[in-house]
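not sure who needs this but someone in the group chat was asking about D-arabinono-1,4-lactone oxidase from Phenylobacterium conjunctum so here u go. i didnt clean anything up, its just raw.
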Amino acid sequence: MKISRRAALTAGSLGVVAAGAGAVTLANREKPEPPAPPVLDQNDRLLWRNWSGIQHAYPAQRAAPASEDELAALLPKAPGPIRAVGAGHSFTALVPTDGTLVSLDNLAGVAGWDGDVAQVWAGTRLGALGPALAEKGRAMPGLPDINKQSLGGAMGTATHGAGKAIPAIHAEAQSLRLATVTGEVIEASPTKNPEIFQAAKVSMGALGVITQAHLATAANRRLHRRVWVEDFEAACDQAEARWAKHRNFEFYAVPFTGLAANISHDETDEAARPRGPDTDSGFLEVLRSCRNLLAFSTPLRKAAAHALLSTAKPEEAVDEGWKLLSTERPVRFNEMEYHLPPEAQIPALKEVVATIEKHRPDVFFPIEVRRIAADDAWLSPFNAGPRGSVAVHCHYKDQYGFMFELIEPIFRRHGGRPHWGKLHSLGAADFAALYPRWKDFLEVRRELDPQGRLLNPFLHKVFGV
């Protein structure tokens, strides 16, 4: 969405008028760059850090096996904890280890085809998977909104896109291959090692390292993308109908504006009209400027935002789905996302927005709202029924502790399950109450890794080991 220069100047003048009247001194709330850990620790071990910067480690050993056989030979003798890493887009401490960090970047690409089922190496980045499948006229039915994750990381954390009838990425796996700490490579599917299959599809690297998945694909159709802004209450009222109507639909609630941005995608035979240059970063910059100038007054801040966003023209594009569903996200942030029963999604969202506007004037990032279809993986947040996700973000320079203090209690009260790769404070007892097959998963985990060589401190808490 493009915002006119005139509207930007109008909004900026609101702050000048307020200050000139002597009402309030404008406070610039821009934060300094967070301090970075040393590149080397006292043992000269090299720093690993996640995308947003809040997780880091100094692994004693790093490995980038060139083949599945090399990986299988490595695992029995590698110092633990052994943790696989993709793009480092998880906000939770899934990856940090002082043992062995295993990169699957060399195990990437489409290994072959079985009809319309693609055999994909787990190190493949989603941004590369789209064009690779398109060469065969195929596509992933759904994709998340960031295209940097690896397939293995996306499956392991139940990463998903937006679509009431479209499941998360792991649900498209027809079978998989799992390298274990004993050096064995296990093939798992609904008919071969079925319990390992249902446990491993979403397993956070706690059973072994997924090396390859056979993924169901769909025809590579062009999608018609529309983005438009409307009042927040109207977006909430229409959300259920839009999830039912559109192939993909999501919306972003924008705190301190009274507005929401809607995004829909539908299959079309129209000629391609590429999306064009990124506008998301500019949108965020406008919201940050409003925060920096006008955080002292919510009414004035909302007025400025309306002046800016009322001139935003709806965005439309037509292109192959992989070019539209996933995008670049150059502005770093931290995130908490919970998956809620559908009937609780909008009430929880409204409570979250009200809480942020009451207590956290420093927040300016939009809140993402999606619906995801059900699947049967044991630790899938969408196990036993569809779920509605609500994702709260804050700029990487800003304090994110409020998510645990103010936002997580709302999600938990509404029956939410946290995204495995995003911020949460839950432990084994909480998950036992949320997942009917929790004990079954723990049993498979003990069988495959009895000594817990794949578990770092964070996973010890998650699994109660």
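also The longest helix spans residues 342-359. if thats useful
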